[in-house]
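Chain A, query sequence.
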Amino acid sequence: MSSKVLIIGAGAIGGFYGALLAKAGADVSVVCRSDYEHVKRNGFAIRSNDLGSWNFVPSQVLKNAADFNGTADYVLLCTKVIPDIDRVTLLRPAVKAETAIVFIQNGVEIEQEVLTAFPDNEVISGLAFICSNRINPGEILHLAYGHLTLGNLPGSISSKTNMLCELFNQSGVVCEATEKIITRRWQKCIWNAPFNSLSVLSGGLETLDILRSQEALVRNIMQEVFNIAEACEHHLPPDIIDININNTYAMPPYKTSMLLDYENGHPMETEVILGNALRAGKRTGVACPHLESVYALMKLRELQLNHSL
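Chain A, predicted structure.
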């Protein structure tokens, strides 16, 4: 019997990974907000540079998780982690005793809210290393990468997690399980902290332009995140900064998710990517002047955005 999956937040990330799970044979339903009418009529159009093009028609297209018919083996939460989205409220209507909760989201130190709300359920933390954009209603352009990392909280790998990894691997992307998923979150923050923020602060430059112009600044921000992670006892590969720099030079020109949110007047993930890292640095006594400056400038940018709405 195929796994039943409910995707909450079927945008550039949720829609793409939901489409992959459906290709692998899972029964996939989605909760949509802005694209509900279009997806209800047409499904999703996936355009991938690596995997080709195909249409994904979900089993159920819903406005609210409470309308889901059946019991989900997995509920995948793929929304932004921002103050005006209550993750627990979104999840609760669809979570039954046997449901595993999977959140594929950015940020560090974001786990406890979900663990506290659902103490009796499996909670799986997920990280996506991907360049993917929603370019039109129901249309997702996958530019590069797609690697997923999953791990149970607080630190293990369950049979359900292994099953989900296998589904993703069957679909054409690499998915691995790790007992050190929180450490991996810090590893992803090494890239997210400089490039998401500088793409906004530069007025819309793509990642390659930022790196060619300000590699020293990028490296300084990365080093500070690395130092904070070390102080929090999350030990990252010593060459992780060079790896991120080299990978960014090699990737196609790309607008970050935070830049797209800014350009569309949407709230940005400033707190979970920058603010949480900065607070962890202060808590552990790590000096992080570059990160502190970038965070302050992003808060001013958020203020400017709020005044313009």
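The CA atoms of residues 166 and 175 lie 7 Å apart. The chain has a mean pLDDT of 95.
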